[in-house]
Every structure is written in C-alpha cells, then in structure tokens.
C-alpha cells in the first residue's frame, strides 16, 4: 500500500517516541531511603541513619513496599512491624518524611532527587529500628475499660444476652469505633510528648468517648468520674496534630 512521505515521517516519529518511552521506563529510578537504625543488642552504640536505594521501576507504590523490598533483598536485619497492608491493623505506623503515617497506605515520593527519611513513631521508647514500645499506649487503653459494662448482671449471664440499640444510637458511634489504635495521633501530640505517662492522648480519649455515648452501657457516670482531672480531656491544647495525622481522618 502506498504511503505518503508525511505519513512515513509520522510513523517514524511515533516509533522513536515509543522507543524513548521504553528506554525511560527501563532506566533505573533509584530512590534513596534514609532509615533509623538501633540495635538493642548493642546498647553502647548510638542510633544511626542508614541509606538504602530502591529502583522504583521494580517496587510497589507504597513506603511499606520499599521497606519489604529492602529487607528481602538488601538487609534482612532491618526491623519493622507490618501485617494487613491495607490500612486496617495499624501495625506499620511510623514517621515518614517528618509526619506520622501508615507505611502500607502512604505512597512513595516519586521525586528521586529527594531522600525519604523514616523514623519510628516519635517520643516513644524504641525496641529496635522502626519498632516503638507500645506498652504505655496499650496500658492507657486498658485503663478506660474499652468494653460494654452492664449493671445487675451475674457472671453466669455475661455474654449470653444480646443488647440492642436504635439505629439512631448506633449511628452516633460512627467515626469512633473504627479507630485502629495505630497511635499516629497520640505520638504527634505535643501534650502527649510532655506528659505521656499521665495524659491519655487523643486516641484513648476518642475511645473513651465511644463508650461514654454507647446507649447500651450502664456506667456512663462512673466513666465520666474517671476523667474529672487535669490529665484527661483538659490537657488537650487543640494543637490538632492528631487530626492531621489520623489515617482514618477522624477528629
């Protein structure tokens, strides 16, 4: 079939563009990650930042993908928590680029000229590398007794009865019960940094409110009495870092 010279030039140009695009895709896009490292087996050594390079052409889009790739292919000693990879369990909470996030749902910055720095959640004791000690956080959660409490119920009857509530009362719990206890909010809060041993922090206070307004619970006033002190709600200074870092966008 006859082709005009202009048509041939167009085909040639398209081939060149396609070849250039393929070459660009195959060229390595090396992204540098600077990761906090500390080994409890060497307590005399100070924490350090260790650099790793990952080819973004051969890596998933999320920060957790890069961490898993580094651990599997470069450094098996790199330690971090992870589980669901879907933003549900809260295990992979860490500080990425100066802000608390879940590594599994936070996208890698594609600008390869910039180094992404990764630290454990701030102002918590570090167990190893990117793993914070969550014991104090969980102890505070236990303090609020995060479960349904009923009066005039014998031990034999516990767990044998279903307690119903209206559709309207159930709707009041939306935006509260879904908290995954990742601690991104609490560890971004300056009030929690200053008084983490006393101040319950935003995550636990959110959960406390969840049980306070549950229409099925019989201990509303007793629960309220536990918070009539300066170390609970009134220690919040409305800095609002918590709402900025919450992966579920709760307030």
UniProtKB/TrEMBL annotation:
EC number(s) given by UniProt:
1.3.5.1
Q: Which InterPro entries match?
A: 2Fe-2S_ferredoxin-like_sf, 2Fe-2S_ferredoxin-type, 2Fe2S_fd_BS, 4Fe4S_Fe-S-bd, 4Fe4S_Fe_S_CS, Beta-grasp_dom_sf, Helical_ferredxn, SDH/FRD_Iron-Sulfur
Q: What is its main location?
A: mitochondrion
Localization (cell):
Mitochondrion inner membrane
- Pathway in which the depicted protein is active: Carbohydrate metabolism; tricarboxylic acid cycle; fumarate from succinate (eukaryal route): step 1/1
Topology in membrane = Peripheral membrane protein
Q: Name one GO cellular component term.
A: mitochondrial inner membrane
| Cofactor binding remark | Binds 1 [2Fe-2S] cluster. Binds 1 [4Fe-4S] cluster.
Q: Which GO terms describe its biological process?
A: respiratory electron transport chain; tricarboxylic acid cycle
The record lists the catalysed reaction(s) as: a quinone + succinate = fumarate + a quinol
Domain (4Fe-4S ferredoxin-type): residue spans on this chain: 169-199
Report the residue ranges that make up the 2Fe-2S ferredoxin-type domain in this protein.
Answer: 45-124
**GO MF annotations in UniProt:** 2 iron, 2 sulfur cluster binding; 3 iron, 4 sulfur cluster binding; 4 iron, 4 sulfur cluster binding; electron transfer activity; metal ion binding; succinate dehydrogenase (quinone) activity
- Describe its function: Iron-sulfur protein (IP) subunit of succinate dehydrogenase (SDH) that is involved in complex II of the mitochondrial electron transport chain and is responsible for transferring electrons from succinate to ubiquinone (coenzyme Q).
Give the record's family classification. Answer: Belongs to the succinate dehydrogenase/fumarate reductase iron-sulfur protein family.
Give the protein name, as stated in the record. Succinate dehydrogenase [ubiquinone] iron-sulfur subunit, mitochondrial
